[in-house]
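Field: sequence (string)
Field: structure_tokens (string)

Example rows 1 and 2, in order.
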Amino acid sequence: MKGFKFVYSISCRNCCSILSRKAMKSVLLTNTSIRLFSSNNPTPNVRALHSTYVTRSCECMISNIKCTACNSLVGYTIVSPCELCLRDKNNGHHWMFDLTAISSCIRIQGLNVLRWISDARIDEESELRIR
């Protein structure tokens, strides 16, 4: 099934709380050697911290995110994407999860593995259009 992007459920590695039921494996636009999970559908178990800052690699404004169940830092959210990142090919996701802070599993529905689609018809398991 090479070439397909699978839908993942991700959990806090520290306390096992579900952080998103609709995440995908991703890489940073500014450094493709950095792998993470991204989503635009976090659960209520994820909360952004109040402080924001500019990243080192671009002008995006970001805020760290934590698991509300155990207060572990699990990644960051893009509060305001920069012009450079908006112009580059991206998946439109604003919630980024650190691989070392989460556990993941591919979602299965019945006997089918759920995959992202890039169709304009948005449904429960479809990907947001790439900008």
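Row 2 begins here:
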Amino acid sequence: MQASATDEQAQATDGQASAAKALPGSIDETLAALQAHHYLADRRLASAVFLALRLGKPLLLEGEPGTGKTEIAKVLASWLGKRLIRLQCYDGMDLAQAAYEWDHARQLLEIRMAESTGRQGDMQVSDLYETRFLLRRPLLQAIEAQTAAPVLLIDELDRTDEAFEAYLLELLSDFQMSIPELGTISALHPPLVILTSNRTRELHDAVKRRCLYQWVDFPDAGREDAIIARKVPELDAALRARVVVLVQALRGLDLFKKPGVAESIDFARALCVLNAESLSDELVRQGLGVLLKVQDDIVLATEQLPALLGSTVQ
């Protein structure tokens, strides 16, 4: 058993050394690596990512929907060659969906088999709470990773409640999880944890204290132009510039849901599909449903359309 433990420790050390080689050595290197994977971050976000990687700390990204918070986890997994484990949060989510639950059907089958073979007298309660009866959900999957540290994305944490946030504290601070029937399970390879929030409610300070924090804003016009150029290179540069001005102007309106970068890219692609050569009034009216997803926002934008289109004239 001691030799096995030694081998396991050696494998863990080798894995950590290998992972360290893959980490960026500077903020500039982080910016370049993100850009190479088609994510155009500003320097503040690149700094937060760099520090999270080097310090081994969870990174909490807050911001408006559509600003690329979720995408950063996907890009990091691709860049670092790590497995992405995603937990999509929602209202009412509990541990059974997020962390683990016991396979009650298998436990019941075990009891029935013991009864049929006359072994029920020898069965202990603990026999029904072995790891073979455990159903692993995203959080436990990330903690139990055996070969390399995964990227754990806890997406839209603000959709959950404070009780769930409290459960996360142990994982965020010590990369471990307590299961009453089994004890504490610690990560052999601590995951890179990315948490996102659209700030529909304020997260608890205890969560924030355990994370590095970065607010992710909509890109400025120059960066948004560069993003669309990368994602939709077939779009004419002059038309792309007008799209950027239009989207930036829309965000200046009092909208319920402002268009994100994903909507900008979709609108640019729609223009290519339509073989558009300019942003006409009729074309934009027909395409507002690509940019805006709330009817009241579409009505407001339609009323402001002459001014919006006027702002895009070069």
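free_text_note (row 2): Residues 221-311 form one domain.
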